[in-house]
Amino acid sequence: xxxxxxxxxxxxxxxxxxxxxxxxxxxxxxxxxxxxxxxxxxxxxxxxxxxxxxxxxxxxxxxxxxxxxxxxxxxxxxxxxxxxxxxxxxxxxxxxxxxxxxxxxxxxxxxxxxxxxxxxxxxxxxxxxxxxxxxxxxxxxxxxxxxxxxxxxxxxxxxxxxxxxxxxxxxxxxxxxxxxxxxxxxxxxxxxxxxxxxxxxxxxxxxxxxxxxxxxxxxxxxxxxxxxxxxxxxxxxxxxxxxxxxxxxxxxxxxx
Length: 256
Prior knowledge:
Layout: H1 3-13, E1 26-29, E2 38-42, H2 47-55, E3 60-63, H3 80-87, E4 90-93, H4 95-100, H5 105-112, E5 122-125, E6 130-132, E7 134-142, H6 143-154, E8 160-162, E9 168-175, H7 183-188, E10 193-196, H8 201-209, E11 213-216, H9 226-237, E12 242-245
Parallel strand pairs: 2-3, 2-12, 3-4, 9-10, 10-11
Antiparallel strand pairs: 1-4, 5-6, 7-9, 8-11
């Protein structure tokens, strides 16, 4: 399958117009006329992930975070971008386009917490009523039980929690990645619990003082769960391409 046939499929899942203005999404490295028979998904295209993809003879890496974020002034031989060009491996990033898209990163988190009806936590495209994060009702659940559900759903032994850990919640907000800055929207939404990747110290204090439970899974831990669903959608859309999820992609932080 040609790369130029794959990029429209990726854009149909995560339209690039949804991306934040500061983001760098889409095809970052690659020849549209190149053939692709294997693709690998990851949150970050680290050296370990790139080596894994090359070992599996993947011609395309779909890395959620942009491997090229700002303008490059130098390309060293050891950099992933240089090696991708040399090895003929294409790099594609959906990032915030996937966060906004239906069925994307934030909808996966919303499903994880059992959210039924949902709306964006922060509207970024008023013309389409779409945006970042999700907020909506859940079946009444004890906070402690919901925190355990989150840990199980994300495959984590530990999460950071601020605010109350007891009492029932029936409305939840989620924001994948660095969505701690949406604390104002989370507080205004009436949610009893806010699941995100990371949050600043004083915002966590503010949330706790307001009675909002904040669950921080660490940045990429809140995003990685979406890769399996994205892989399934891609397999259905392009059966001629073998799609795998990286086994070496992981958050840089661990809890010991």
